[in-house]
Prior knowledge:
Blueprint: E1 3-7, H1 12-16, H2 19-28, E2 33-38, H3 40-48, E3 54-57, H4 61-68, H5 74-83, E4 86-91, H6 94-103, E5 111-115, H7 124-136, H8 154-161, E6 174-179, H9 191-203, E7 206-212, H10 220-224, E8 232-236, H11 240-249, E9 252-256, H12 259-266, E10 271-276, H13 280-283, E11 289-294, H14 302-315, E12 319-323
Helix pairs in contact: 2-7, 8-11
Amino acid sequence: MKKILFFRLGGLGDLLVTLPSILLLRREFASCSFTLVCRKEYGEILKETGIVNSILSFEDREIINFISGNEAEEQKISRINEEFHLILGWFQSSSTLKTLEGVFPKRGGRSNFFIFDPGLKMEMSRYFFQETKRSLVPESTLCFEECLFLPLNSGQKEEGLRLLEGYASSSSKGLGVVHPGSGSKRKCWPLSHFLFVIDYLSSRGFKGALVTGYAEERMEERLRNSKLPQGWVWLKNPPLLKLAGLLSASDIYLGNDSGITHLAAACGTKVIALFLEGFVDVWRPYGLTAILSAKRLEEISPQTVIEVIELYLKKGFSSFSGHQ
C-alpha cells in the first residue's frame, strides 16, 4: 500500500481549510494510507471520520527533529523519505516551507508544498483545493463543492446529542449551537449579544448549547452569573469529535471567526459567522454559511443577526454574505 504524508500546522481552523484538499486526495487515492502531521487533538477528527489513517503530532520530539533538520536525525529523515510515496504540505507563509524542503528534498515530484497567495483575494480553502487538484490530480472530475463536509456517521451524531442531557427533538422546533469565543478578543462579538440571541432562539422554540473552550476562560465568570433559558446548556471544553456530532445534528450555528465556526461549516450545519471585514476574503468558512462582517464587530447589532435567522427559518439559505 502506498503511503502519503501530509503536513498542516496551526489551529483547528487552519486544519479545516485544507479539508477539501485532503478529501479530494482521499477520494482519488482511496487505496493509499494517509498520515497527517498536525495538532493531535484536531487531527483525531479526521482520523475518526476515516479521512486519514494515522496522526503524528508536530509537537512530538521526533517530528520536531525532522522539521529542524537536525543532522543527528539523518537516518530518520532517510527512512521517512523511503517510507512515504508522496509528501505534501499546505502553508500560510514560506518560512516553514523552506525548512521542510530542506528536510524532504523534492525527488521526481514526490514532494509538493503549497503556499497561500493572499494577493489573489481568494478563500484559502478554495486556493489550496485548486492548487492541489492542478498539481496532483488534474484529471479529477471532483469539484470544490463536492469535498466540503466531514463524513460523520449516525453513531457519531448520536454521541454528540448525548452532550445535551434530556434533549428530545420531538419537543423542540430546532436545535442551535452558539460559540461566543475566538482566539482573539478583537474577533469576538459582545457576549451580551450572544446571550440575547439565545433568548430569542429559545422564544422560537429552539433548544441547544452555548459552547466555550480554553480560549473563553475570561467569559466564565460572566456565564456563571447568567441564566440560560430552559432547554439550553453550557458545554465547557467538549470533546471535539462529540461536538462535531452535535453540530452535524444541529439546525443552526452562530459564532465568531474561530476554529469551531470552521468545524460547524465542515459538519454541514447552517452557519451564521461574524467576521471582521479584513478577514472575510481569506478565512471565510465554506458550506451553508451566512457571513456578517463589519470594521468592528460591535457594529453588528443583535437585530441584524436575528433578521438572518428569520431569513433561514422562513426560506432557508445556502450562501449569504453581508456588511453591517
